[in-house]
Structures are given as structure tokens and as C-alpha cells.
Amino acid sequence: MKRWRIPLAAMIAGILIVMVLAMPVKRAFTFTETRTDNPELVYLPIKDDSEFQIRYVHSIFLTNVYETYRVQSDNSLKFLTMRYEDVGIGLPAYAEEEETLSVTKDGIYTLTYKDKVIDSFVLYIGDVDAQLAFRYKGIEKDLKAYLERGHSYEFCVKKLTLYELMKGVNLNGKAKKRTESGTHNGSK
């Protein structure tokens, strides 16, 4: 009977460890690599404020575009506004139904969405030197320092497990260093 106590205790301890590691504990903005068997997870924990921006330089006009979102209580994303300087490819000159478009004296267009809610979106990280940033709580993070160029990432909000927090790359941590070939050190 004594010989079963140690294996049983070890098995119970192992089950408890697995349960703790698999329990969702922290709500975060997540970037999960798509089209791969071993997806990389990059995340940023969410604090009180749920509003954030994606800022990028438009590939043709070479001007900043700001997309502003708010995280809903069910982790969906409400698209609030898009601000830009030029109209054309991807940057509308008129508003659709449930949208309004205004132009300031400085020539800045603001497209406001009435009730556009999505669960997630995919970001393609182009292999060009145009800027791509994530802005949250007054701090801007260069996404190209954390995400692999030429790869796609699904962006969403979800509760991460302790295992995902340990395995993933925190945007509050150090950016990955690039080798001369343009890939990250330690990656594939």
C-alpha cells in the first residue's frame, strides 16, 4: 500500500500543475502568428483603459493612419475612428452607412464608425521599412521590433493562461534583435 502513495501524490501534483498552467488568468491584447504549425504569441496585458490605436504609415501616401478601437466587455473590438491625411487606396473619401466623415482645416480626415464591432483582425507585417505601431496608455510600441516581417498575425483580446504568458513574448519586454538576414535571433 505504501508504494502507491508516492506515485499517486506525484500524479495529483502533476494534475494540479497542469490545471494551474491551463487556467486563464490575464486579459491581454494578443498577436498570434497565422499560417504556421507553431504560432508565435506576442501579447500586452490590458490594464484599466480599453482604448488603443494602431498607427501605420500608408504604403503609397507615406503618411500616418490612426485606427482607434475600444475593447468591449466580451473582448470584441469596437472600431471607433480612422484618421488620415489623403484619400485613396484603403482611405475612403466618403462615409458608408453607419459612418460619418469629417475634415479639419488642416486637411485631416476622420472617419467615425457608429457601431462597427469585430472579434479580431489580421495584420500582415510587410517587409518594408514603413512604420507600424501599437499605441496604448500613451505608450507606442514598434510592432516590427516584435513581429516577424512577411508574416500575418491575428489580433484579438483574450484571457491568457499562465503557460501562454510564460511562453509568449510580452510587448513590455525587450524587442527581438534582428540578424542581418532580417530574421529574429532564436526563431526558425
Automatic annotation (TrEMBL):
InterPro entries, per database record: DUF1850
Taxonomic superkingdom: Bacteria
Record-given protein name: DUF1850 domain-containing protein
Organism: Sporosarcina jeotgali
